[in-house]
C-alpha cells in the first residue's frame, strides 16, 4: 500500500525547551499529540528521537510524526516533522487538514514548552566541566567515595534549585578543586541511568561544558586523585559509564584547537 501513497504536505516545528533532554522527551511523551488520529509507535530512542505513524485506516491517507531532541547550551531543541501522504492524487482534504494541524500544533507547543520548563524545576541536573589547559590536556577526577568510588569523572555536581547552570559549574569547581573557572562553551549532554538526589531513576542528565581555570591552584578537596590527560589517554580511563558518549567532543577540543 505504501508504494501508492503520494506526499500531500509536510509541516516542521522547532521549539526550544528550557529543560534537560530526558525531561523534554518524557513530557512530550506524556502530553501526546494534539490531534485525534490514533498513532502507532515506529521508533522510540529515549531521549533522542521518536517516530509515530497514523496508518491509512480508511485507505486514503497516512500521517507520520517524527520528533528529535538535541541538547544545546540553552536547553533542548525539539524538532518535529509531520508528513501527510494520500493514496489519491490531488486529494482535496489536504488544505483543511493542514490548517487544523498547524493550529493544533501551535497551541500544543506553547503548552508543552511551559510544562517541560515546570517539570525541569523538579529534576536535579548535574553539570560537569571539561577544563582544558594550555598544553591541550583535560582535567579528570577520580571519585573517592560512594557507589562510584574509583571511577573517573569530570569535576562538577548537582545544580541547586533555582541556581543557573553555569553558576553551579563555577561553584562546584571552586568547592571541589579550589579554583576559579571561566566556562567557554557547551559540549553535550548524556542521560544518567541512576537515582540523582532521590529523584526518579533515569530522570537526570549530565551537561558538560568546556572551561578554563582562570584563578587559584588546583587542590583535590573531594576527589581521591586529579590528572591532566591528553587526547590519546582519554578512552583508556575507567570512566563512570554514563560519561563515555561525551569523550569524542572532549577529544575534539584537545586535538583541533
Ligand atoms: N560531577 C560529576 N558527576 C557525575 C559525572 N558522571 C555521572 O554519572 N555523575 C553523577 C554522579 C552523581 O550521581 C551525580 C553528581 O553528584 P555529586 O555527588 O558529584 O554532586 P554534588 O557535588 O552536588 O554532591 P553532594 O554535595 O550532593 O555530595 O552525577 C561526572 O562526570 N561528573
Automatic annotation (TrEMBL):
Domain Nudix hydrolase stretches: 122-254
DNA repair in keyword set: yes
Keyword tags: DNA damage, DNA repair, DNA replication, Hydrolase, Magnesium, Metal-binding, Mutator protein
InterPro entries found in the cross-reference section: MutT-like, Nudix_hydrolase, NUDIX_hydrolase-like_dom_sf, NUDIX_hydrolase_dom
Needed co-factor(s): Mg(2+)
EC number from the UniProt entry: 3.6.1.55
Domain of life: Bacteria
Reactions performed catalytically: 8-oxo-dGTP + H2O = 8-oxo-dGMP + diphosphate + H(+)
The keyword DNA damage is annotated on this UniProt entry: yes
Similarity comment text for this entry: Belongs to the Nudix hydrolase family.
PANTHER family: 8-OXO-DGTP DIPHOSPHATASE, NUDIX HYDROLASE FAMILY PROTEIN
Protein name from the UniProt record: 8-oxo-dGTP diphosphatase
